[in-house]
């Protein structure tokens, strides 16, 4: 008999709990997701503005016109946001108080590629996505027939340039020519730096840096149309045909190519100028001394005449 009462109590308790749970769920489902109950967070480290909070809120309202919690299909909404080209990832979830949270991470462009007359961005993962009509992200411009399997290595190259002060100062763009060689476009002069393939980038940039510090600082950068560092242990330069001097092959481990003779000749030219200026100063001092002596003589003569008259 006691067992029957115990079972009856359990059944009644389960029914009551089920009723309360059903009532709570119905009440929760009927809640409206108002604007102040929507939280949108952009989680990327580098600020980008391809989409904003307003865009996300519009998608939420479009996917759930009634704004009721029960009518919201969270997996479908998350899928919709993840499908946006500029979105890297989206996480959508509801709190027990009916607050809708959306954590969005946008794609950050590493470089902008101009290929076959079309422009688009590429992120660090090598994923393409279209440029925006409302926002342009500052990044390295790359031109030429770049293959998709080269995107990641190219992104690594751009990131290395961005982190190195020397490279960041000199390199402003990348191009791929018809021979499938990559070239770094420079901010100084009209020359480009040929690196060939995307392997051994650190070694190639180091070679160019050595060339700049040991030689190019003493030269006119307009002298060259190309500086190639794609060959091992040597730097090959292509001359600007309109420049007067003629140097075609420079070995990175060779002689000191600094034009010391030019600096010496400049110093020699400056020395006579200094001497001339010194000579002028000496002459002016002598002239002033002579004038003062004449004045003193004139004063003495005048004083003598005055004494004679007084007598």
Structure description:
The structure is a single chain. The protein is α/β, with parallel strands linked by helices and 311 residues long. Among the domains are: 35-106, Roll (Ubiquitin-like (UB roll)); 109-246, 3-Layer(aba) Sandwich (Rossmann fold), CATH 3.40.50.11690. Helix content is 42%, strand content 22%. It has seven helices and 13 strands. It has a ten-stranded mixed β-sheet. The longest helix has 51 residues, at 260-310. The radius of gyration is 40 Å and the shape is elongated.
CATH topology of the domain at 109-246: Rossmann fold
Report the sheet with the most strands, covering strand number, pairing sense and barrel closure: 10 strands, mixed
- Say which CATH homologous superfamily of the domain at 109-246 is assigned: Cell division protein FtsQ/DivIB
Poorly predicted sequence stretches spanning 5 or more consecutive residues: 23-28, 247-292, 296-311
**Based on helices, strands and strand pairing, what is the structural class?**
alpha/beta
Number of strands: 13
Provide mean pLDDT, rounded.
Answer: 78
